[in-house]
Amino acid sequence: MDDARLGRLLEEGRLRRLSRRELLRRGAALGFSASALAGLAAATAPRARAQDAANPLGVDAGAPLEILMWKAGWGDEYALNAVELYKAAFPGVEVEYQATQRVLEAAQPRFVGGNPPDVIEATLLDRAALVGEGQLAEMTDLLDAPAAGTPGAKLKDTLLPNSQIDTVVEGKQYGVNFTFGLNGIWHSEPVMQQKGWEYPTTWDGMLALCEEIKGSGLAPWTYQGKYPGYMVAVMWELVWKQSGLEAVVKVDNLEADAWRQPAVQQAAEALYRLAERDYILSGTEGLTHTESQAEWLNGKSAFIPCGTWLENEMKDLIPEGFNMAFKPVPPLAGATLPFEGVSAFVGQPFVVPSQANNVPGGKEFIRLLFSRENARAFSEYTRALTTVVGAAEGLDLGSAFNSANAAQAAAGPNTFSGPLYGSWYSALTEEVDIQMGALLTKRIDPEEFVTRAQAKADEIAADDSIVKFTREP
């Protein structure tokens, strides 16, 4: 074989998208000499650049960048903005950008092949498993890097406190969450006012109001039938308000009989009452998330559970004057936390694979993504918040945004970040969602719900092949 051929292939960029390991393997298979392969290894190794204020992570300005983006309820405009920021920082750089709802299918074979994209929006990935396999790059250098657009601050200083808990494994951070929002219950302000209905501050009050609403001919509730996880979020807010964080921590830590704790059982029973008393819109179980949300917007039900991405996700279908408003989940009798407590969530975790061709570039993209200006722009066109402190300050973006902000302000320190088993044990998440769907269609009762959830938790706890995590109280 002519070693000059290898040089031409590299020069033409025809081998650029293969991983360094794959390039060496293919080169050897083609019969290139040892000296040529040594040159190949040097040519494909990441080229570090001097770290300075303009390039704090030492990005190779000529190295291509590949981004795999999950495009869902928030859209992807904010990621496209960051692409332009990256191109402005490194003129002429090649950026390959893919936005899809099928991130798992796109990413999985790339991880297996050792040539993953440089940065991934990882909501749909099993991040705990990837960390356990050493597939994700650690982020300390990124968090300690200067924040883009906030002079004198490190990136970590610009992030909301406790907004990155689920990205930390054994004291090391393997991703950065971009979005911040609230989970709760939504209604139309004009509908409530016209009917003379007041949003209840207790679960008993919710059931009483549901009976009145049902009598008016309107369904009290709908939910995202094919995705019962939305109602699981309601359940966990009930659990948290009933007993504080203790019950949730026991579930996260796979403790024996954690799902049989009184607070969990009572929350399951509370949601079962909605189904048992026919307070749920008929046919809900067959609807997707957007279909059920459209039914709610069309006036088929009074309430729907969802996160604060709801308005942006349904913006093309919202009737004029609908004025959607957010409220916390009303607590059960004997709750230890007040009605005003809210369930917060973080999302849109961005990760950089450890085997990526351009690890510094992936981290730099994230740094630019989290700039205050990009975060504020995200809030302006999605009417939702980010984990970047103060980025949405002073914005007035309508009833949905304003009601969620008011709820957050009223909650004060009573803010719940949710269970972590969803990030740690995907099989448990899937099982709980399935059983919640069965509970809300009266195919099982609350006792069977907690029994099945506990059985899956016990199965995971006993499986030594699954990496275990611990949540502190």
Automatic annotation (TrEMBL):
One GO location term (cellular component): periplasmic space
InterPro entries referenced in this protein's UniProt entry, alphabetically: Bact_solute-bd_prot1 (IPR050490), Chitin_NgcE (IPR022386), SBP (IPR006059), TAT_signal (IPR006311)
Sorted UniProt keywords: Signal, Transport
Tagged with keyword Signal: yes
Subunit details: The complex is composed of two ATP-binding proteins (UgpC), two transmembrane proteins (UgpA and UgpE) and a solute-binding protein (UgpB).
Family: Belongs to the bacterial solute-binding protein 1 family.
Protein's name in the database: sn-glycerol-3-phosphate-binding periplasmic protein UgpB
Annotated organism of origin: uncultured Thermomicrobiales bacterium
